[in-house]
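Collaborator request, handled under Task 6.
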Amino acid sequence: MSTVKIKGMSCNHCVNSVREALAKIPDIKDITIDLEAGEAKYAGEVDPESVKQAIAAIGFEVVD
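Structure tokens returned to the collaborator:
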């Protein structure tokens, strides 16, 4: 599983938005979003840059 820290999520709507954005990425699977930790976890052979771009496109920031 890969993990990304996300800045800006504050509610379940945010969680759903991130999940939907990540679900559009080919080959991504097993997406888990933890609102309290501010993290998204996922499996699959996915380019980390495409994950960052998908999250940024909906108004959130990936924190390194």
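The cover message to the collaborator said: "Residues 27 and 52 are 15 Å apart (CA to CA). The first helix runs from residue 12 to 23. Please let us know whether this matches your experimental observations."
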